[in-house]
Design goal:
Mean pLDDT: 86
Shape: flat
Strand order of the largest sheet: 1-2
Number of helices: 3
Low-confidence stretches: none
Largest sheet: 2 strands, antiparallel
Helix content: over 70%
Order of helices and strands: HHEEH
Oligomer: single chain
Radius of gyration: 13 Å
Number of domains: 1
């Protein structure tokens, strides 16, 4: 994977993480948090889709790596929602 491909993959993950935060109603953190949320969302969303037998929606191929955009947004929104439940409890 080239440097350009890696940067493009990070950008896509950041956009998915930001959209996932917006769907969940949370907006904390910067670009690094958004990138992490995008990748966690991709893992969680893909796992949920496979568990329910749903197809892969809008996969983007970057440098030979497939990144599931829709499942990443859904997964990051779910992850942020779960985190916000715990934050409200402790604050």
């Amino acid at each position: 994977m080239s440097v350009i491909s890696l940067l493009l993959l990070l950008l896509i993950a950041a956009i998915c993480g930001i959209l996932g935060q917006a769907v969940a109603g949370q907006g904390r953190g910067g670009i690094l948090v958004a990138i992490i949320l995008g990748f966690i969302g991709a893992l969680l969303g893909t796992w949920l889709a496979q568990a329910m037998g749903l197809p892969e929606l809008l996969p983007v191929n970057v440098g030979g790596q497939k990144f599931p955009v829709i499942w990443s947004i859904i997964g990051s929104a779910i992850f942020v929602s779960i985190l916000s439940l715990f934050q409200r409890r402790w604050v």
